[in-house]
Design a protein that fits this description.
Arc Repressor Mutant, subunit A; 0% strand
Length: 99
């Protein structure tokens, strides 16, 4: 996650988000940079318009879903008992994998 934060910081400052700059920012935090993660991030971000991605992310985060009109919020979040039972069985199955 620190690599993403470093990329956002570089972008905010108007600096190019490249391997060299990311390495410098991560080193400045006192962490030894992982070159593989840095290369993967720069490769992934090379095709992304960061301004547009941030604009879309803030729009999504700022618009919470409203409960149905006339229904209490607690009722809207309740799960049917069958669904809860299925989830519980699935969790038991997962637990058996780990002893």
């Amino acid at each position: 996650m620190e690599y993403v934060y470093a990329a956002l910081l570089l972008h905010k400052l108007g600096k190019p988000v490249n391997e060299e700059n990311l390495t410098s920012v991560v080193k400045a935090t006192g962490v030894t940079p992982d070159e593989v993660k840095i290369k993967a991030l720069t490769s992934a971000l090379s095709e992304v318009n960061i301004d547009e991605a941030l604009k879309n992310a803030s729009t999504i985060a700022a618009a919470p879903a409203a409960p149905a009109q006339g229904a209490p919020a607690a009722k809207a979040e309740e799960k049917p008992k069958e669904e809860e039972k299925k989830e519980e069985e699935a969790l038991q199955g997962l637990a058996s994998l780990f002893g």
